[in-house]
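@channel anyone free to eyeball this complex?
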Amino acid sequence: MSQENATAMRPTPTHDEQSRQAFDGLLRAHLRQHVLPAVTTLYEERVLPKFRKEHERDPATKSEVAKAMTAENYYQTWSYMQRLSQQLLWDSVIDSVERSLPELIERAKGLTELGSLTLDPELEIPRYHTSHDIHQQPGGYHSEFTEDDVAAGAIFDTGVPIYSGGIMGAANDVLGQTVVSYFRDTFAQRKPSKILDLGCAIGNSTVPWAQAFPEAEVHGLEVGAPCLRYAHARANAMGVEVHFHQQNAESMNFPDESFDLITSCILLHETSVPALANILRECHRLLKPGGIMMHQDGSLTSSWEPLRAFMADWEVSNNNEPFLGTLRNLDLQQAYVAAGFALEKINFTTAPVGGSQPAQRGYLSGFGAVPIYLAEK
Amino acid sequence: MSDTETKVKLARVARGKRPAYLDDRAIDNLYAIVVTMMQENVVLRDRLDTLELLLERQGVVLQQQIETFVPDKEAADSREQRNRSYIEKLFRCLQDDRQQFDDKVQA
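replying in thread with the prediction:
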């Protein structure tokens, strides 16, 4: 019963809102199927031969590829259309959320029985949230426009299926299910009794842990209050008990050695170099001896050939992901060691998308597996 | 106070650096306007489609019936196919551009 209720907090679009949102999905599909594939051809047939003629060698870095590609009109047009499709996505979703907001707030107030929600209105929102709106979502994850606001959560939850072309599943939880399946396959003997999910947003990757380990106490942590209110209501609609906290993962208020498992999905690349170090150090402090830290995030691309690395970085400047490019070239293993994890207890690996189920087609169809950055304390 | 005065207004523009794309910022903006108009055109065509389907089925139609109309699979598929073709038609110029460096492309 609970998976169907994952959408209980989303607004119901009017006729025209539904059309606008569907149009954006089709626009993104058109770009993916009919425009993007030729970007590689553009490189191979025109940009690379031109570069070789000028320099008598191949491009050595993604920056050299970037300089040559961004001068090409076809690339400029694809890139701008891709950015535009993201802006239209949020705008068409915000129409529904803005219209339904009073009703969504009331609905959330009736969905609070299970678990808990601890907000901290004094929390300082980190600069990597306030200097730019991540993914171009206007207002980001944290901005509040009215009392008891849930808008940011509703916008995110309604926008992700359009963004991902449905690959994230009806409950927007494919990534969460992926890391849970990986954990169960890898650590079949372990039954974590306290689990912490960092940067949990609307709890779409937190709920799968509570469903997989119903005996465990599951906590979700996030800086944005409107996402957390939404997350708590969503988990309640699904009949799942999760404790949500408005805290910064760089400095948490839990006692040392509180958790058996600390995890995150696509959090690390939304932070910064100093924040990443702080988060990893906090994970080490909060883990019980023998506990597992498991972060799912983008690929580290420093060894990739330049065109592939350049294309993987598209979201960096075009979709407000400034730290993603830095993270991709970082010595993440060294960052784990600096946080206190022993080198031999670190395992950087991948998890098949959707776990044991066959990978679904869509935006991520080129990615059969997602990176998992794991360490044992 | 009227509803419009009490209604909460959410942010519509994202903070952050805006890269330049085409040769002139004005061309970027023109693209944005044209694609948004494409979107509204699709909305109008879908609404007309809904109206035609409801009229054929029952004659007189109330506005509320349009707002809550959910097309069956056949109608939804045909609508999606029409809108896909519409997007392809308007972006055919990009397929033309593509022919300049891609001899495998089907015009």
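from a first look: The two ends of chain A are 37 Å apart (CA to CA).
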